[in-house]
């Protein structure tokens, strides 16, 4: 049940941030943190602790204002039409629209975090590149002389029943989570001190499975094992959060599209309210038993 573990009131997270030492000097790194549900968690950290936030993702951050020809197009279909009018070849329109939407989401996250009082910086780093990830961790630590918290949330889905799955697709889905998290944990082990917390964003699919998600379920299950082994190896705190589906919200829709959300509603699966989800995690980190390697958070049955 959502938020049943971890004590304390479901307030604004300020007491939790203070208990975790997340003040203006603290530094939290979020891999895959500029978009989706992790951007929501970053906003909760910003509002509660005003800590410095370092965000990584593959999307290229927009340089300067968007071309007025596309800027007025606010949703995907308007954007596709605007791009087609600009002469982008039809087979490339969808990818171009995705790039623009992702860039806008990154920019909106950075604006939101700084409005909430957190200095935030974004770097384009592919978590599937272990050397780049290690370098980013080293640079962040070297710049501030500390790393208080880390969130690993990079993930992709390419759902298909196993019999029809292309091995390369399986590898992408699995590696983005499992290999990326392993590289991150190795990089953290090289720092002079472990962060106060390291959170791995997993999925309830790891525990209960989901049609078309054999790769994704395996990857999320692997996260928990990687975190537990890292704790044994380093003594650091690693918590895997196996999330149930979140309700899509505003700019940060995440992996649950409106269509999927409707499907869940039809099946009677309630979706995690984003504010409740982020505060539940903050409470777990602040008051939860540190030796617990994983928690499952869901708003209802699966
Ligand atoms: N939304 C849910 O209901 C739900 C439920 C269970 C678990 N989760 C987990 O929560 C995490 C976030 O999901 P979401 O729903 O917010 O999905 P999302 O909007 O697709 O976010 C995924 C994030 O991962 C980043 N990412 C993907 N591949 C990457 C790579 N190779 N290197 C660096 N960053 C990468 C993406 O940024 P770029 O595209 O810019 O790289 C994005 O920030 C995922 O790990 C997911 O498995 C979500």
UniProtKB/TrEMBL annotation:
The keyword Manganese belongs to this UniProt entry's keyword annotation: no
InterPro entries: KR_dom, NAD(P)-bd_dom_sf, PKS_KR, PKS_NRPS_Biosynth_Enz
SUPFAM superfamilies in UniProt: NAD(P)-binding Rossmann-fold domains (SSF51735)
Ketoreductase domain: residues covered: 26-249
GO biological-process terms attached to the record: fatty acid biosynthetic process
SMART domains in the record: PKS_KR
Keywords carried by this UniProt record: Multifunctional enzyme, Transferase
Protein name, UniProt field: Ketoreductase domain-containing protein
Transmembrane segments: none
Signal peptide positions (record): none
Superkingdom classification of source: Bacteria
Pfam families found in the cross-reference section: KR
Single annotated GO MF: fatty acid synthase activity
């Amino acid at each position: 049940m959502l938020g049943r573990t971890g004590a304390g009131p479901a307030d604004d997270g300020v007491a939790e941030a203070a208990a975790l030492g997340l003040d203006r000097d603290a530094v939290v790194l979020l891999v895959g943190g500029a978009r989706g549900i992790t951007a929501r968690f970053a906003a909760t950290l910003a509002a509660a602790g005003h800590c410095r936030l370092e965000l990584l993702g593959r999307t290229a951050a927009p340089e300067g204002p968007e071309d007025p020809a596309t800027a007025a197009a606010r949703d995907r279909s308007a954007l596709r039409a605007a791009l087609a009018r600009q002469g982008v070849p039809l087979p490339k329109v969808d990818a171009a629209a995705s790039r623009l939407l992702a860039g806008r989401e990154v920019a909106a996250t950075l604006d939101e975090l700084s409005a909430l009082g957190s200095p935030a910086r974004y770097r384009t780093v592919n978590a599937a590149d272990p050397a780049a990830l290690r370098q980013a961790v080293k640079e962040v630590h070297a710049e501030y002389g500390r790393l208080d918290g880390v969130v690993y949330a990079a993930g992709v889905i390419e759902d298909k029943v196993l019999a029809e799955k292309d091995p390369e697709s399986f590898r992408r889905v699995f590696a983005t989570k499992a290999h990326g998290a392993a590289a991150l944990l190795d990089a953290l082990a090289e720092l002079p001190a472990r962060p106060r917390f390291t959170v791995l964003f997993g999925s309830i699919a790891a525990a209960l499975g989901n049609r078309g998600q054999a790769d994704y379920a395996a990857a999320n299950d692997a996260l928990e094992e990687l975190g537990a082994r890292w704790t044994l190896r380093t003594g650091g705190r690693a918590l895997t959060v196996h999330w149930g589906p979140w309700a899509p919200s505003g700019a940060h829709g995440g992996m649950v599209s409106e269509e999927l959300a409707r499907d869940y509603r039809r099946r009677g699966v309630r979706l995690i309210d984003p504010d409740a989800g982020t505060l539940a995690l903050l409470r777990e980190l602040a008051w939860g038993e540190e030796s617990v390697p994983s928690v499952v958070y869901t708003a209802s049955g699966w």
